[in-house]
Amino acid sequence: MLHSNVSAQENQSEHSIPYQQLLEAQSGLLLLISPDLTIMGASEAYLREVLLTRDHIVGKHLFAIFPDNPNTPDHTPSATLQASIERAIATRKPDKMEVMRYDIPEPDKPGKFLERHWASTNTPIYNSQAQLVCILHETKNISDALKTKTQLQESREKEQAALAQAEQQRRRMERFFDQAPAACAMLEGPTFIYRVINSAYQQLFPGRQMLNLPLFEALPELRDQPVYDIIQEVYSTGITYEGKELLIPVARYEGQPAEDIYWNFIYQALLDAAGNVNGILIFALDVTEFVKARQLAESSAALLQNLNQGLEEVIKRRTSELVLAQAEAESHSKRLQNLFMRAPAPICILNGPDMVYELVNPAYAALFPDRELLGKPILEALPEIKGKPVHQTFLEVYRTGRTHEEKEMYIPFARPDGEMEDRYFRYIQQARFNEQNQIDGLVVFALEVTEQVQARMAVEASEKRLQKANKEFDIANQQLTYINKDLDNFIYTASHDLKAPISNIEMLLSELLLELSVDSLGKPEVRRILNMIQGSVSRFKKTIGSLTEISKLQKEDLNKQEHVVVADLLREVELDLEKMIVEYGASIETDVAGCSTMAFSEKNLRSILFNLLSNAIKYSHPDRKPRIVVSCEQREEGQVLQVRDNGLGLNPVQKSKLFTMFKRFHDHVEGSGVGLYMVKRMVENAGGRIEVENELGEGTTFSVYLSK
Question: Which residues, by range, are in coiled-coil regions (predicted)?
Fold first, then answer.
């Protein structure tokens, strides 16, 4: 309690009226307190600030009107105020207080307080006898200013925290962008200037300078390719473009020729704050290896199919094992055409030692469409990998920070129905580092190559079957060679060994004619028998001669070719057949201007024309004279020589056996039945083929195809 040597009544009688008027007229926040801390008066401004009336406070003890806030028991501003007043009295000087929180009662809500902060000064007032009269408490409510300052400070702190977080995120994104295993680049402006390039992108072009250069200046060979129009369209429309297996020839080193590279890529527009396109984000993946693997698979399948067809042409009857192998090859060929699904590169980010999915892009989610990944540890999302090599590599990368790459990792996964399926992945596991350069997660680039692996396995299986078929083909060729040699030896031996007996028969027949009397020779029955014997001997000699010709045909040099003038050779054949032509009244028309010369054995070509023309005359229709047309033309596959007649023609059964050795279909004319057989052999020995078109009773057309 404060004490004074002057009574309150004396102070009031001496100063109350003039002091009261002076106090109320002040604009500041003033409170007049007696030495015993009784409130003597207050300015209007002060009353308004503390939400009280003069009648309510005057004559009341200071701390009865302004008690401490019971809700802040650790804070006693009344003691601090009283200590300041006591210092002012003791020093007889104004005492300036530190900014202090002193809550005031809320008038309409008993027990409630309003938070206030004050900057106050306590000044002792003395009379002319140097006696303490009162204490002038002058204060200023700085709650709003302090609150504003506090809010400003908090705002600054939040702003700094946001900036720090943004900077942290920016650095993290930069690290993620640079550490991403896929090739990424950011292009700026309508000229597409390279502003950001990650390491994977630069590795695609190790010998080229790109940073801060326009796209088509850094890679000028792209200007005349479809990618030029594609990126212009993305920039003008803002619509993302996704390219799959697009062939873009480009040079990896400056000044080097462009090489064929197949790409999976995404062009995505970058927007400014106003939503306008101001750049392009490139995500690219070199898939040349996969495309070439697929092309190799398709090529191998086609090769296998061609080989099977060749085997069918050479070997007429296949064993059941070969038929089964061909069926399997065709089945694999169809499967290979449907393999190799294309997709953008999948990426995910795993956070912390439990490897929780922090980020999953759509391509990665598409690998597991039936599973929820985001926010789950990898072993909870993909429990099948526990204890598998892929999980061990995850742990190893997280422990050591060393990047791990797999080209064909086998990982079995469960389908929605619970059945396990074999899947293969190419992936890169890369550690993610925080600001302290500590590992805090993993970045995973995964590409499913199940179809490529299956395709490769199919190709390997096909190659094994191809090798087996080749081996069987060689065996079949050897067997055919042995058969041909045996046949040649047989024909040669038969023709040689039969010459002596038939000559003896012919000699004995001559002797018999000399021994028979004139009367015997004059008998019709004897003459008929003798004629039959002579005819049989003659036909036998012709047959032996045909066998000799066939034997010679087998031993001829198949590769011996000459440039034969077709028109000249045809005239020579007509001269050889002149007697027959006149006898039958035949007419021969020629049109061989389309191929004036042929690269063929002249002797064999003469034999072919002779046989075809003589047959056309001999087997003419009895109701009309033979009319034969010989033509030759150049086609894409080679030269085609045709002989068309208006003769008897053949029925389907006769046509199927037309080129059989010693086979004849008409007995009213002479023949051995080996002419067409020899024609077919000569044509096929030269790598060609002969085809027949006919209409029974109307005529026949022989077409000889000779390859280039």
Answer: 149-176, 452-479
* CATH number, span 557-707: 3.30.565.10
CB atoms within 10 A of CB 52: 19
pLDDT digits (tens, 9 = 90+) for 503-548: 667 676 676 677 777 777 777 887 777 777 776 666 566 566 555 5
Helices 524-555, 450-515: axis angle to 10 degrees equals: 150
Q: What are phi and psi of 252, to 5 degrees?
A: -80, -20
Q: Which residues contact 321 (CB under 8 A, 6 or more apart)?
A: none
Tell which wins on pLDDT, 412 or 511.
412
Q: How far apart are CA 555 and CA 392, in angstroms?
A: 71
- Supply the pTM of this predicted model: 0.30
Residue from 162, 119, 159 nearest 138 by CA:
119
Residues 198, 443: Cα–Cα separation, whole Å:
15
CA–CA distance, 142 with 147 (Å, rounded to integer): 8
Residues with Cβ within 8 Å of 375's Cβ and at least 6 positions away in sequence, in order, are: 356, 357
Residue 69 DSSP label:
-
Instruction: Give backbone dihedrals phi and psi of 669, rounded to 5 degrees, phi first.
Output: -130, 160
Q: 78 near 66, Cβ under 8 Å?
A: yes
Alpha-helix runs per DSSP H in 180-287:
199-204, 215-218, 226-237
Give the whole-angstrom CA distance, residue 530 versus residue 518. Answer: 14
Quote the CA–CA distance of 262 and 75 in Å, as a whole number: 76
What length does the chain have? 708
Q: Does the structural domain 180-286 have CATH classification 3.40.50.720?
A: no
CA distance 360 to 10: 88
Fold match between domain 8-141 and domain 180-286: yes
Pair 22, 5: CB distance under 8 Å: no
Query: Which range among 240-254, 336-350, 665-679 has the greatest average pLDDT?
Result: 240-254
Alpha-carbon distances of 179 from 200, 203, 444, 619, rounded to whole Å = 8, 13, 10, 86
- Residue closest to 62 by CA, chosen among 86, 33, 87: 33
pLDDT at residue 12, as a whole number? 47
CA 139 to chain centre: 78
Q: Where are the domains of the chain?
A: 8-141, 180-286, 347-448, 463-552, 557-707
Task: Give the lowest-confidence range in 147-151, 351-355, 605-609, 696-700.
Answer: 147-151
Q: Which CATH superfamily is domain 347-448 in?
A: PAS domain (3.30.450.20)
**Residues 344, 86: Cα–Cα separation, whole Å:** 81
CA distance 418 to 689: 59
Question: Under CATH, which number does the domain 8-141 receive?
Answer: 3.30.450.20
- Scanning the structure block, which residue is given the tokens 């009648």? 55
SS (HEC) of 609-653: HHHHHHHHHHCCCCCCCCEEEEEEEEECCEEEEEEECCCCCCCHH
Nearest to 183 by CA among 266, 296, 82, 254: 266
| Strand bridging mode 627-635 / 587-591 | parallel
What H or E segment, with its residue span, contains residue 21?
helix 8-25
Distance CA 601, CA 561 (A): 5
